[in-house]
Amino acid sequence: MLTVHEALIALLVEVRPFAVETHPLAETHGLALAKDIVSNTDSPPFDKALMDGYAVRAADIMNGRATLTVIEEVTAGHVPQKPVGPGETTQIMTGAVIPDGADAVTPIEDSELEDGSAWSKTVKIATRQIESGTNIIHRGTSMKRGEQVLPAGRLLRPQELGTLAEMGQHMIAVRRQPRIGVLATGDELVPIFETPGPGQIRNSNETMLVAQIRRSGGEPVPLGIAHDERNHLRERILAGLECDVLLLCGGVSAGKLDLVPSELEAVGVRQVFHKVQVKPGKPIWFGVFEPSDTESAADFDRRCYVFGLPGNPVSSMVCFELFVRTAIRQLMGIEPSQPAPVRARLTKDHVARGNRPTYYPAYLDWNESGPVVTPVKWHGSSDLRATVEANAMVLFQAGDQIHQAGEIIEVFRWEVDTATYTN
Predict the structure, then answer these.
(1) Average pLDDT over residues 352-371
(2) For residue 57, pLDDT beyond 80
(3) Element (H, E) at 89
(4) What is the dotted CATH code of the domain comprising 22-41+151-175?
(5) Across the chain, what does the average pLDDT equal?
(6) Which of 33, 326, 383, 396 is the least buried, fewest Cβ under 10 Å from its Cβ?
(7) What does the pLDDT read at residue 58?
């Protein structure tokens, strides 16, 4: 049986990033850059004022006081026509170009026009002592021409889109979202809008997995429920193999009606691994389907990566966060693809038992000393209710151990955007 680390490596060997596509900038939110972005401009492109006030020579403001001759007014979007000489100043607005000769800006609040009119040739300034560079942002402070601004693999959030727009990057090389089918299996399942009969439960896993897919950047394709009958299950599997990724929930263990592994084999899905040393989620299955007419590396986008997730909801949730999310990030070219832990301090003692590493629901928070984590009250893989109080999972290694409050331990966040696992 593979460890989690070994299973992730096996997964990443199989999952190839999608082909690079070029899209208009406005259509790339939530996708990842496929190429490094190098700045083609300085930002800001000129020395500019950080506030409304007066552009001055710092040497003219002795102890913060001076009476200066106003030579012109410059607003944002316009260029100064006159250099500032000794004893002179230019009235300037936020974002405007600093005139030659000036090396600081004094706030408008610290000035008084001599005759009290809207425009005067003379202004009195009474401010704190200033230095060269005060209230100015210099050309190239944010980024310089030729500097790498964004690396390949960076997820495009609103702030990245704005930065690309600032550089005039209107067509962006990215990789697309994967379409991810979700197929629940089992005669005990009914749709969530139906009242369960004796021995039945609602198909809550589909709703949960669809939400996890969206949070991870994929496009969910709900496929409903497959009965515990081979022909019906095979029919639904074949429909799901049209997606980039197929998640089957339930039917992957060793019971009489756990038909998923054999039916996947029957339709040509190649098994990569089955069962991992993890709690919850030991029965997880992973394989790859390649259409028989695949001829070249360019056809890798036509592959379907298939996960058989355990039916218990917390097992399914944990396996998604560890393995499926990693596959999504790998397909989209998001770096890093593998989950990376936060190291946090336990807030209370915790007794851990089991012969497998356990990913235990917990609440991660921050205080004045840094990240802290509290395991929630959890009753095992069927106890989805407990996860409502959690936003992460603590990794407790195999074996019976007493973990003391204050101990530093690895935590994996659930509630993260797709930019990074560690922020």
Answers:
(1) 95
(2) yes
(3) strand 88-92
(4) 3.90.105.10
(5) 92
(6) 383
(7) 95
Domain at 342-413, CATH from 2.40.340.10, 3.40.50.620, 3.40.50.300, 2.40.40.10 = 2.40.340.10
Which residue's structure tokens are 């609040």? Answer: 109
Task: Report pLDDT digits (tens) over 256-288.
Answer: 667 899 999 999 999 999 999 999 999 999 999
Q: What is the DSSP letter of 62?
A: B
Query: Which alpha helices (DSSP H) does 117-266 contain, by range?
Result: 158-166, 204-216, 230-240, 260-266
Instruction: Tell me the CA distances in angstroms from 221 to 27, 76, 268, 385, one per residue in order.
Output: 21, 49, 21, 25
Decide: helix, strand or coil at residue 411.
strand
Instruction: Tell me yes or no: is domain 48-137 CATH 3.20.170.30.
Output: no
Q: Which of helix, strand or coil describes residue 160?
A: helix
Question: Mean of the pLDDT values across residues 75-99?
Answer: 96
Global pTM exceeds 0.90:
no
Query: Above 90 in pLDDT, residue 124?
Result: yes
Are the C-beta atoms of 405 and 374 separated by less than 8 Å? no
Q: Is the pLDDT of residue 419 over 50?
A: no
CATH architecture of 4-18+176-332: 3-Layer(aba) Sandwich (3.40)
Strand partners, 396: 358
User: Is the separation of the CB atoms in 264 and 306 below 8 Å?
Assistant: yes
The Cα-based distances of 214 to 178, 209, 217, 247, 273 in angstroms read: 10, 9, 5, 14, 26
